[in-house]
Amino acid sequence: MEKKKGGAGRVVLIILGVLAALGVAGYLGLRALVKEQMSKVNDINLSVSKGQEAPDFVLPLTDGSEAKLSELLKDKEVVVLNIFASWCGPCEKEFPDMEKTYQKYKDKMEIVAVSGDLVLDEMEDMVKYKEEHNLSFLIGMKNESIDSLKVGGFPTTYIIDRNGRIVFSQSGAFLHEGDFEKVVTSLMGDDYEGKQVALYNFYVTNANKERVSDIEIRLYNDTVNETIKTGEDGIASYFTQDAQDLKIEVLNLPDGYTSNADTITLGIESGTKMITLEKK
């Protein structure tokens, strides 16, 4: 059966053929086009509604079989859908921790990682990628069965609970070892309550784009009052098993500085937030 290519992949392949005869000018034109298209992808709002039902996807896999969500959920408590690209460095970086977690909990969870490549969109590429990266979980190709799920860049991850609900969505890689395990294990066990989970990462930088350590960040609303602190890498993380709207503020601003913290509001969508410190 002839494989149908995604719209973006088909457009890029056509452009490749047109530009092939244009040499350097063609290459520069293609690079600008891809950059423009990716910038549009990265602007997509990935947020989901609480309790949103996941599409019952059917995705082709490298071994010739298919992964169907409703079938996976008959035996698993958690299904992870990861949309990656073979040329994506952050995707490659997070896979070892995913593989390690999968080996520990594969009786309770399944990972389905599918390629969303714009150009390298052949199953043979994915077979090779899986072998080269020593991945044992399911690898395949993105298709129209998950078109209702937005891709906010690579990687994009959706995590689905035993009830078929999307309870976690994230654009970008898991930054720290153990973060992925923390999220998926919160959805396992007889005491699982079915709440929306979220993982927020905060980068704090100064006007020179340098990371700033030891900055205290307060996350709060009428019922939540938590404080986290940036490490030596200028990053602070916050995980919650009950995602909700939160405001933030910097508690220990250096003298003579302001921040954009009061413009940032957290919702149920996980992801990275940038806090900048600037002189008044």
Tag the structure with descriptive keywords.
single chain; 280 residues; alpha+beta; Glutaredoxin; Immunoglobulin-like; 3 domains; 5-stranded mixed beta sheet; 4-stranded mixed beta sheet; globular
Describe this structure as you would to a colleague:
It contains six helices and 15 strands. The protein is of the alpha+beta class and 280 residues long. It folds into three domains: 7-42, no CATH class; 58-194, Glutaredoxin (3-Layer(aba) Sandwich), CATH 3.40.30.10; 199-279, Carboxypeptidase-like, regulatory domain (Immunoglobulin-like, Sandwich). The chain has a five-stranded mixed beta sheet. The longest helix has 20 residues, at 23-42. It is globular and about 60 Å long. It starts with 6 loop residues before the first helix and ends with a strand. The model is unreliable at 1-16 and 30-45 (pLDDT under 50).
What layout of secondary structure does this protein have?
Blueprint lengths: L6 H13 L3 H20 L15 E3 L5 E3 H4 L5 E7 L4 H17 L3 E7 L7 H10 L5 E4 L14 E5 L5 E6 L7 H7 L12 E8 L10 E5 L4 E5 L5 E6 L5 E5 L6 E3 L5 E2 L4 E9 L1
Helix pairs in contact: 1-2
Give start-end ranges of low-pLDDT stretches: 1-16, 30-45
What proportion of the residues is helical, as a percent range? 25-40%
Spell out the helices and strands N to C. Answer: HHEEHEHEHEEEHEEEEEEEE
Alpha carbon gyration radius? 20 Å
- Give the beta-strand count: 15
Shape descriptor reads: globular
Question: Which band does the percent of strand residues land in?
Answer: 25-35%
Report the CATH architecture of the largest domain.
Answer: 3-Layer(aba) Sandwich
Main β-sheet, spatial strand arrangement: 5-4-3-6-7
Counting helices, strands and paired strands, the structural category is: alpha+beta
CATH H level of the largest domain: which superfamily?
Answer: Glutaredoxin
Overall pLDDT level: 85
The CATH topology of the largest domain turns out to be Glutaredoxin
Please give the largest β-sheet. 5 strands, mixed
Kindly, what is the distance between the CA atoms of the first and last residues, rounded to a whole number of angstroms?
Answer: 63 Å
The level 1 CATH classification of the largest domain is: Alpha Beta
> How many individual helices?
6
Number of domains: 3
